[in-house]
Amino acid sequence: MRQYSLSSNIEQNAMGCEHYVVTANTRDVALRITQDFRDSFHAFLLIGTYGTGKSTFLLQLERDLCGEGGELLVGAAEKWAGVSGCKCLNIVGQYSAFSTVLFQKIQDVLRKDGSSLSRTGYESSIIGEDEVPSVDKTLTLLDLYYEKVTAQGEMLFIAIDEFGKMLEHAAKHEVESELYFVQQLAEWVNVPERKVMLLLSMHQSMEAYGLGTGDLNRFEWQKVQGRFRTIEFKEPVEQLLLLAGQSLSEDFPLDSENKTEQNRRIEEIYAVATESKLVNELFSLETARALFPLDACAAVVLASAVQRYGQNSRSIFALLHERGAGSLWERKGLEGKCFNLNDVYEYLIVHFHLAIRQSHVDSPVWQALNMATERVESIDWSTREMLQSALKVVRSIALLQIFGQAGLVLPRVLLERYLLQAMDVADAGKVIDELERLRIIRFAIYRQRYVLFEGTDFNIEAEVAKAETIIPVSDAIAEELRQYVGDVVVSVREHYYRTGTPRCFLQTVVSEPRDLEPEGEIDGYVQLLFSTDRDVEEIVRRIDEKAKHANIFVICREMGEIVRRLRRIKAYDYVLKEQLQDKNDRVAERELRLSLVYEQTQLQQYLEHLLLSGTQSVVWRWGGVDQAVISYRDELRLLSKVCDKIYSQTPILCNELINRHKLSGNISAARIKFLQAMVEHEHEADWGWESDKFPPEKTIYYAMLKNTGLHKAGGFSDRPETEDLLSLWCASDNFLHSTRNEARSVSELQKILSAAPYKVKQGVLDFWIPAFLYMRRHDFSLFGREETYLPEVNLECFELMKKYPADFSIKAYAESGVKIDLFNQYRRFLQIEETEKIGKDKFIETIKPFFSFYHRLNEYAKNTKKFDRIGTVAFREVLAKAKDPEQAFLEDMPRALGFDPEALGNEEFVSRYSERIAQAVHDLRHCYVDLIARIEAQLVQTLHWQHNDYTSYIKVLRDELREIKPQLLPPSLKRFVNHALAEFDNRNDWIQSIAFSLLNKPLSQLHDNEEQQLIEQLVHSFAQCEELRVVSRAMDFECAADKTAEIKSVEKRIMKNLSGDDAIDRAVLFQLLKHYIS
To answer: How far is CA 350 from CA 286, 325, 354, 653, in A?
Structure first.
């Protein structure tokens, strides 16, 4: 018999390493340690549960590094670490300060080499036993010790087992200082140049030890743990059992006389373990034989239990070597007797009773087992053997319930086989029946295994069976199924690998077939048809033949089993909601809910199996023919085939950063940088990015533009040089050409590219559409909200366009024909070089002077209609109302000037078009001057001025106005006279001045209907001034004193001859006065 140690102590011995067995787990852990060490990570946390062999692993790793244990794990350090050897510092954790323990350990090691103390300076670092070393003191001593090790060309290996004990001490006493020391130590070890490896083993993460120290300290624990490489040390149960079997096979060889019977039992129990899914493929029949008399089921449960509860009795190996009552060695003389689940139960109760009684996740089942045991023992069984058999049944069920995996199944037949083979329970069936009748155990359909039953008065099985007979299933089976069978998204792989575009099909239950158009992230539909309609296949055939979109139809012909499962689901639901009267019966409610979920899951699994069964019960149809689909791989191939046909023009863009439906936050930010670089660095290589760095926006630029040849040598190309984006380019270019006659919104382009045969992902369009429009910005006009013309394509436009694509529209310029000729007539009028193609730069260069001319016109020129040529008004209106410059200049304006596209002789019109433009411009430019000339002419003619030249009549007029006595002028007329007397060098300013005095607004704001009224006011004002001038002269006349009587006599005669009409009399008197005074 081999020697056995309960636990390896890395400070005292390396017992057991001579027979160390390398497992897949230990090999992977060792490989990761060496790889990370080469990458300059030197500090490691080894985390694993009790009894998994961490301590032994540390010892074997040490033997490897020192070249004493062969090359089982990593081999000698001198072969891969660039050193001549390895010096090891082993510490077993204790409930003390870590810094103190490490200091004392190094100090003890140095004292053993006392001859070198004075020579190396260690002596000053050594302290007394009662002193507490500081963090700096400990690190200084470690530095000195490391120098001694490296002086010999060796590496330093520091292994600390059971490090959790030190962390427990730190959490309760010296959190800040100890965490700081652990952090400092890790940083000291991780210096790349140092040949040091630090390996700490514990049972849980470092953060878990700090849960009770408060939120602030918990973050500190997380930070410190981040200084280490965390490695999980997890030996599968099957691996531990394999090692245990190697030990047992020597101590418990099969009995030669009963070998056949023992082998039969082993095989039967092994079959139960595999069929119940208690063990996986790692657990072989040979392992089961090696473990005998420990049966396969008991071995798995026992190994799991000691891992979960064991700490002092650390592993299954403790049981293998124990002697006395209840031990495995009791079976030594009992040939054929297995150490079974009942024995495991008794062993756990004895050795782990404290752990079992504590509160943990298994507590409810242990409590249920205690209750079931009491109920079993309280029953009056016919024989004691029946009582013992019943106890074995409930204990076996409970242990499998606790330690079995979630997928464990335990139908009646397997339970009976195990009880018979492992425990010699011959009447297992009878015992199980009685336990079920007493509701101590029950078969949980939702788990497909027996479980302990807490008990309820509600007869679940009977009520469900009764409900199944009365619950109807609607003819609308699809609607019923949709409640329980959710939609499934299936990703198409092959098409994605070829094009870089991810494709997703929605597999959904439908009530009737339709040719659905995919939208958004969905690229197609797998329509599952569950119908009792006999004509459903013919309906599908007709729709499929005319289908234009990616739709696959799956018809289920056999509905019987589906109806049965639906009825059972509805029965559970009905019983739960209607029949369970006692709502406080938590046991019944829980069982009904779990059973309902189980039945729904079973229905889903049945449908998944049915759809891919390849039988005549299911028909897959697409493209006018039935498709052979008997596996998930066949389905994926069909989906790829559909995508290849429906989305045949999908561009090839293998960049997962943007080839997706929705961009991530980082790539959305990269999009802005991408567009900014495009606008600001268009003529630079790689748009100005640094050559040795590849931010995401640069990667996208390479994938979309540079690698396709769309941008090279500091400029954009006319078309891509590769086939990858050619279909996308052609579709966008065709859309641009289609806007020559009528503007189309950007959202239309987006819709075209988002649909078959392209179905480009929105993430790509977010980059492609602004990039394409910027590349072709000289070939179209851009319009914003309310058809506002936007002369420039810039970043602001792109951002608004992304949010509101329907608000932006584009219209391509004409490339040939009459429009080019008309365009050149404008350029001829402006005396600039003619062109063969309309581009944005040339177009803006051409139309800008006309708009500038219009905006410089005053209000009168913008509104008057007093032109000799009718076309002038229409010409002006086109400039005033233009929203689409191209339409305005190449369609509306020629029509305004007399162009008729349907009439003959248009060539002559086009050739003389510049002359018509010149006439209209001339009319607009001179209309205001013509207004002033008309006003002057009316004044000269009406007022009978002797001169019609401004410099001549203004002098006479000013002299006459100065003769008027100011006191005679009313306020309104006084203002007029002041404006008339103002000094101006030209007629235009003078006319504008006197008009302003009467209009109270500039003459340039005069409306056509106000012109005659203004002239009349001017004439009347000048006439009033003439009257007042005469009166003013009369006031200056003086008569001789001796003529007074004669004057009075003449005055009487005149008054006697007046008509009595004031207006007539006043006019007569004024004329007489004027005649005699002049």
So the answer is: 30, 11, 9, 67
Count CA within 13 A, CB hemisphere, residue 805.
Answer: 15
**Domains of the chain by residue range:** 17-232, 252-455, 463-646, 665-812, 818-925, 943-1035, 1041-1077
Q: What is the largest CA-CA distance in the chain?
A: 186
**Number of DSSP helices (H) and strands (E) in the chain, helices first:** 48, 19
| pLDDT tens string 707-758 | 999 998 888 988 899 999 999 999 999 999 899 888 899 999 999 999 999 9
Give Cα separations from 536 to 512, 545, 549, 551, 615 (angstroms): 8, 14, 20, 16, 18
How far, in Å, CA of 392 to CA of 396, rounded?
6
**Rounded Cα gap, residues 323 and 506, in angstroms:** 63
Question: Which residue do the tokens 């003459």 mark?
Answer: 1003
Tell me the residue length of the chain. Answer: 1078
- Contact yes or no for 348/305 (Cβ under 8 A): yes
CB-based contacts of 991, cutoff 8 Å, min separation 6 = 932, 935, 936, 1003
CA distances to 844, 1035, 1039, 1042 from 1049, rounded to whole Å, are: 85, 20, 15, 13
H helices within 252-362, ranges in order? Answer: 259-275, 285-291, 296-309, 316-321, 341-351, 353-357
Domain 17-232 has CATH 1.10.530.10: no
Sign of CA dihedral 316, 322, 327, 332: positive
Structure tokens that stand for 879 in this block: 């400039």
> Which residues, listed in sequence order, are joined to residue 50 by a DSSP beta bridge?
none
C-alpha distances (whole Å) from 516 to each of 64, 167, 524, 548 are 66, 62, 8, 9
CA distances from 23 to 80, 280, 728, 831, 950 (A): 22, 17, 55, 91, 118
CA distance 75 to 63: 9
The answer to whether 266 touches 289, Cβ cutoff 8 Å, is yes
The answer to which of 312-316, 766-770, 802-806, 825-829 has the lowest mean pLDDT is: 312-316
pLDDT digits (tens, 9 = 90+) for 589-637: 777 888 888 888 888 888 888 888 888 889 999 999 999 998 889 999 9
- Within 8 A by CB and 6+ apart from 570, the residues are 467, 471, 473
